[in-house]
């Protein structure tokens, strides 16, 4: 007898990035040396002072439930940090701590969407956004952006996508998967347009500290001076502090939205992990003195990866300005694999032929592209790129 599952599951897909990580692991289990460019997490260890903070929390008994929205100390620290980063006053009742930024997004969609409400998502976008909207009963409306526009959504394209059912615009700068950054003037124009159309804006700013080449990060919140209560910010410890496994993220926005999310959180996970919250408090309140070295390392890796990619005939890869992803266009190489082949076939081919794991562009809404995460060593980049170049040389000439 088969088990009957919820129809909710029929509308969502498993995460494509996790699927590729899994495939690479299966090959590794067979003894193959696979170089992974698929997982979007820092390869640095969580800094020692943060780990010490967690040890101290364990020793002093911070091992019980906390308030559903997180500890007062962490919410205050997050509010103060956000004010410093975004230049906009924020009180602790505008903050909710969740089990990662992904969980913030999930709680947000559950809290604000009614069945049929539309969420505009500029694509390419992170794979989890559309599925989370679907899980919450909403309708993701994917609006294509192009490499020629630096992947930035134009206010006109936004307006054209809006219907009577549109409730939310989602922004993500710096972006996963493109590494693209929305400059200040464009950010202001899009957010002003969204607010004038009566939309809520949710801005995923998890990569805000990873910006290169003299560019500056601009938050959605600081880009406008009016109706800031219609902007909800998502952030967390995973990327800046190399704390992916600790599962702490936060949302900052209107107290009504925060309380609605708190109600959902209280009935689902009770509260985020107490020890992780104590560690996150150390993370956000201590100086980021290690971070300049990390950023310099990411920059070197990006430069080496982008150069090696562009040296392969058939690959075009502009230098991404933020995050730790490169998103080359590889249509010419895909064609060489055969008619009707896609970037999904190409990513599988790279895994089999070059033993490198990348994520295909289609799940991000960008066929013809593949995503490399360069949060890995220079050696791994060097060997991985040699393998890719050699495999591509074996493809038939056009
Ligand atoms: C754009 C984006 N938002 C959110 C997340 C999730 O972060 P967290 O580990 O805090 O759930 C990721 C992780 O890869 C991401 O790329």
What is the overall shape? globular
CATH C-level class of the largest domain: Alpha Beta
CATH architecture of the largest domain: 3-Layer(aba) Sandwich
What do the pLDDT scores average to? 95
Structural category is alpha/beta
**Helices and strands, in N-to-C order?**
HEHHEHEHEHEHEEEHHHEHHEEEH
Number of DSSP helices? Answer: 13
Percentage of residues in strands: 5-15%
Small-molecule binders here are:
pyridoxal-5'-phosphate
Strand order of the largest sheet: 2-8-7-6-5-3-4
Number-wise, the strands total 12
CATH homologous superfamily identity of the largest domain? Type I PLP-dependent aspartate aminotransferase-like (Major domain)
CATH topology of the largest domain: Aspartate Aminotransferase, domain 2
Helix content: 40-55%
Assembly state of the chains shown:
single chain
Q: Which residues sit in consecutive blocks of at least 5 with pLDDT less than 50?
A: none
Main sheet characteristics = 7 strands, mixed
Calculate the terminal CA-CA distance, rounded to whole Å: 53 Å
Number of domains: 2
Whole-angstrom Rg = 21 Å
Structure notes:
The chain is α/β, with parallel strands linked by helices and 398 residues long. It folds into two domains: 7-45 and 290-393, Alpha-Beta Complex (Aspartate Aminotransferase, domain 1); 48-285, 3-Layer(aba) Sandwich (Aspartate Aminotransferase, domain 2), CATH 3.40.640. Helix content is 41%, strand content 13%. The chain contains 13 helices and twelve strands. It has helices at residues 16-29, 48-59, 72-86, 101-112, 128-135, 155-161, 184-196, 255-268, 274-285, 291-310, 331-337, 343-354, 378-393, and strands at 35-36, 95-98, 118-123, 139-144, 166-172, 200-204, 231-236, 249-252, 325-326, 356-357, 359-360, 370-373. A seven-stranded mixed sheet has the order 2-8-7-6-5-3-4, sandwiched between helices. Strands 9-12-11 form a three-stranded antiparallel sheet. It has a two-stranded parallel sheet with strand order 1-10. Strand 5, helix 7 (184-196) and strand 6 form a beta-alpha-beta unit. The longest helix is centred in the last third of the chain and has 20 residues, at 291-310. The N and C termini lie far apart (53 Å). Pyridoxal-5'-phosphate binds next to helix 4.
């Amino acid at each position: 007898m088969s088990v009957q599952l919820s129809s909710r599951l029929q509308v969502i897909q498993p995460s494509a990035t996790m699927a590729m990580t899994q495939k690479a692991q299966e090959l590794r289990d067979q003894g193959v040396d696979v170089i992974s460019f698929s997982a979007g997490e820092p390869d640095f260890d969580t800094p020692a002072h943060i780990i010490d903070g967690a040890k101290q929390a364990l020793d002093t008994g911070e091992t019980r439930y906390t308030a559903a929205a997180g500890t007062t100390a962490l919410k205050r620290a997050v509010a103060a940090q956000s004010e410093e980063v975004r230049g906009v006053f924020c009180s602790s009742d505008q903050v909710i701590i969740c089990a990662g930024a992904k969980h913030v997004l999930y709680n947000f969609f559950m809290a604000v969407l009614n069945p049929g409400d539309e969420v505009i998502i500029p694509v390419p976008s992170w794979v989890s956004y559309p599925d989370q909207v679907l899980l919450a009963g909403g309708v993701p409306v994917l609006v294509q952006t192009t490499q020629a526009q630096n992947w930035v959504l134009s206010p006109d394209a936004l307006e054209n996508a809006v219907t009577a059912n549109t409730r939310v615009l989602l922004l993500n700068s710096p972006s996963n998967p493109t590494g693209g950054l929305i400059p200040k003037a464009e950010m202001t124009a899009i957010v002003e347009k969204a607010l004038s159309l009566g939309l809520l804006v949710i801005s995923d700013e998890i990569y805000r500290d990873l910006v290169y080449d003299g560019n500056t990060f601009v938050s959605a919140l600081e880009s406008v001076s009016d109706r800031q209560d219609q902007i909800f910010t998502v952030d967390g410890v995973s990327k800046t502090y190399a704390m992916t496994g600790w599962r702490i993220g936060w949302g900052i926005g209107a107290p009504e939205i925060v309380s609605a999310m708190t109600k959902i959180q209280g009935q689902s996970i009770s509260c985020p992990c107490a020890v992780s919250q104590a560690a996150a408090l150390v993370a956000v309140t201590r100086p980021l003195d290690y971070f300049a070295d990390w950023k310099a390392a990411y920059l070197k890796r990006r430069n080496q990866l982008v150069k090696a990619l562009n040296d392969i005939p058939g690959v075009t890869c502009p230098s991404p300005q933020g995050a730790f992803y490169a998103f080359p266009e590889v249509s010419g190489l895909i064609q060489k694999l055969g008619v009707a082949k896609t970037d999904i076939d190409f990513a599988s081919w790279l895994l089999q032929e070059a033993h490198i794991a990348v994520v295909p562009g289609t799940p991000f809404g960008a066929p013809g592209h593949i995503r490399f995460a360069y949060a890995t060593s220079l050696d791994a980049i060097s060997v991985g790129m040699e393998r890719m170049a050699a495999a591509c040389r074996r493809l038939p000439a056009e």
